[in-house]
Amino acid sequence: MKKTVKDYIRTIADFPHEGIMFRDVTTLFADARGFRMAIDQLLHPYAGEEIDKVVGLEARGFILGGAIAHQLSVGFVPIRKKGKLPGAVISQAYTLEYGEAVMEVHDDALMAGEKVLIVDDLLATGGTCEAGIKLCERLGAEVIGCAFVIDLPDLGGRRLLKKLGMNVHVLCEFEGA
After folding, report:
1. For residue 131, which of 171, 72, 87, 89 has the smallest C-alpha distance?
2. Cis link prior to 59 (omega < 30° from 0)?
3. Structure pTM?
């Protein structure tokens, strides 16, 4: 039977807290065939689209985003947690299940009018991606889509991003949190 991207992802029970089923993409990244399949499938809906930059959300979005940017022969822009980037940045606060966090991007990372694809491994509540979208838009870029390996539909992230008018592409879904 032919393997799917989902087949390469392992689940670790009770990490980082009891009751959480952690979806571990490192097993996907470690397998050459699985990793290639994920990158190809993440790119597929955007074939022929004009994309100027790929934006990766910390941290696993850097791995995926770097590979996708390479395939497209475009630049890569990291959006990081507060305090991790040198130089002048703009910041965006967002809510987590357990509080608030802040994401940052260099203030010169994107130019007005550039079309960007945002990439990350997991879509849960959508808060991190929403912060990334806001940062890109504040720099004048147009987000043409958001691509993820995994969606946890019970947490509502896709609904949130769709309400923001985003084109959302995911490779697989897992039930629960």
Report:
1. 89
2. yes
3. 0.96
Give the residue numbers annotated as catalytic, written as ranges. 60, 97
Residue 60's CB is within 10 A of a number of other CB atoms, namely 18
Q: Is 11 left (phi over 0), alpha (psi -120 to 50) or beta?
A: beta
pLDDT in tens, 75-116: 999 999 999 999 999 999 998 777 899 999 999 999 999 999
- Do 39 and 169 touch, CB atoms closer than 8 A? no
Q: Is 173 helix (H, G, I), strand (E, B) or coil?
A: strand
pLDDT tens, residue by residue, 65-78: 999 999 999 999 99
Q: How many CB atoms lie within 10 A of CB 19?
A: 8
Q: Assess contact for 112 and 141: CB atoms under 8 A.
A: yes
Provide the H-helix boundaries in the chain.
Answer: 26-30, 32-43, 60-72, 127-138, 157-163
Tokens 């987590």 belong to residue: 96
Q: What is the CA radius of gyration of the chain?
A: 16
Task: Give the count of beta carbons closer than 10 Å to the beta carbon of residue 61.
Answer: 26
The number of C-alpha atoms within 13 Å of 107 and in the hemisphere containing its C-beta is 5
Instruction: Say which residues have a Cβ less than 8 Å from residue 86's Cβ, sequence separation at least 6.
Output: none
